[in-house]
């Protein structure tokens, strides 16, 4: 016999969409569309208990709360983030009907048949039922347009109780972070080392160097942590970064005999260093810009990284990585991105600028030469660009025309006829009185 209990929980983006008790898709809507497809699926999550060799059925209700016909498919899929076949429950499940069509105001139950094999060991097993709307053109007039569809995932979390025990076990680690306002925030990472899922939550006590209590911060209840996975939990609140030293103690409840705990003493300093700045010349392709970023402090930092390329006329282009750069305390992070376009042969300066915290900035330059077939870094005589310069070379832009004008004036006045006329005019003026 399989028994079920429905649960309402908050899920992150890894589960495709936020899953509240009533989960609604508003698909295919446009500013001109009059009809709307909206479906509600309950329950949003199910926790199921079973024994080896048992069978049962779980029902999911699909309701059309919109004003046009809904059609789509239902299928059994893997649980998001589960890559271990031994943890999958896909082979236990079957759906009574894969196609669903509902008129406005109509609802229907989708039956999920469950058959647990005799040889399944005790522990957690995981799967998901995925509902996907049929693709439909965005254009309300039936003309050409992009086809869109919606997707809802309903997780199924099984607890299989066989003859073996089901241990719950967890490890936690504390990661202090530099926030955008230059304060110190925290993240607690929870590692599920047991064989059953759990939902963690707890507290973080932070003391200064003299061990006087500073503040107790909450570790909010997270999403289910599947065996063999790690879930980062953001901590509510932050502390000033002007202390010499902090000691943080985390205590996380996960359903085991006692909470998982961890203690970390650290200095709240934020120090980054740019290493190995360079360019990879790829003939016929855009150059590859790269650097190594060393975190020499006690705080994790997620900086903004920008690459600027200059020649003797000023900046010729800029780019940034298409992902969030993350650095860990005492860690080293490789950063690379492709230059947006091609650079012709010549000498250039590559400048990397790192921004982090409230207004902290770090920059470094290197020179390189592109010859089309090969690159020669650190060439002597390459143009020098002041650190932090991001604009054109105004000295060259303004000075060149002025220099030409001055040369023209000197040349004209140096001609003999011009000099004689100027001398006669000056003599007449000085004797006019």
What order do the strands of the largest sheet run in, or round the barrel if closed?
1-4-13-10-6-8
CATH superfamily of the largest domain: Immunoglobulins
Tally of separate domains: 4
**What is the count of β-strands?**
29
The assembly state of the depicted protein chains is single chain
The CATH topology of the largest domain is Immunoglobulin-like
Q: What is the CA-CA span between the terminal residues?
A: 126 Å
- Which value, in Å, is the CA radius of gyration? 33 Å
Instruction: Specify the CATH architecture of the largest domain.
Output: Sandwich
Largest sheet: 6 strands, mixed
Strand content: over 45%
Shape: extended
Number of distinct helices = 2
The computed structural class is mainly beta
Low-confidence stretches: 6-34, 139-146, 373-396, 426-433
Mean pLDDT: 80
Task: Give the helix proportion (percent range).
Answer: under 10%
Query: Under the CATH scheme, which class of the largest domain?
Result: Mainly Beta
